[in-house]
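My current task is to audit a protein record that another person submitted. Thanks in advance; the entry in question is below:
***
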Amino acid sequence: MAWLVWPFLCIWAWAFFTVLYFNRVIVPAALSQWSQDNGQQIMQQKLTLFFRGPFAWNTGGFQVVYRLTLRDRDWHTRRAWIRLGRGWWPSRSAETCPIEVHWD
């Protein structure tokens, strides 16, 4: 009977660490890369778990939504909602992580 448990535990551990790697490594790297590419400096960022602004009704399980306060090169401050990732499976790298932005 124990031989049935090991495959399940291996698949579960692989999925768990894939999601953990996505949230701890890929998302911060993609967010940093996006801000540099667009000439924005992140002043404040907040991970939203419940109220997700314009992404509230269509955010999948493997997507993360942040509320950002940004400053551009001309020192103008703006706020934005940003969603990172795909709805069905975590991205494997920061370069391939889809990013959607909704400016206030």
Observations:
- The chain has one helix and four strands.
- Residues 2-37 form the longest helix (36 residues).
